[in-house]
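Q: I have 74 residues here and want to know how they pack in 3D. Can you give me a structure?
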Amino acid sequence: MIFDTDIFIWAQRGNEKAAALMQKTQEKYLSIQTYMELLQCAKNKIQHKHVKDFLSSFGFIVLPLTENIGNSRV
């Protein structure tokens, strides 16, 4: 499943459904755009590391920029 920025925000704000979806999904992906948005929201190097550690610990795979990914937000 490809996760968008919104689901990460909801999970961070304590939405149990969003967190449960992340936990139960076996194959977790996010686009490079979502990855960059999450890193852009980090206010310092510590938060930047937390984002990377979170994604790594949950097994998220960052998808490279492709035509399909690039057009998904249009």
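Q: Anything worth noting?
A: The chain has five helices and three strands. The chain has one domain: 2-71.
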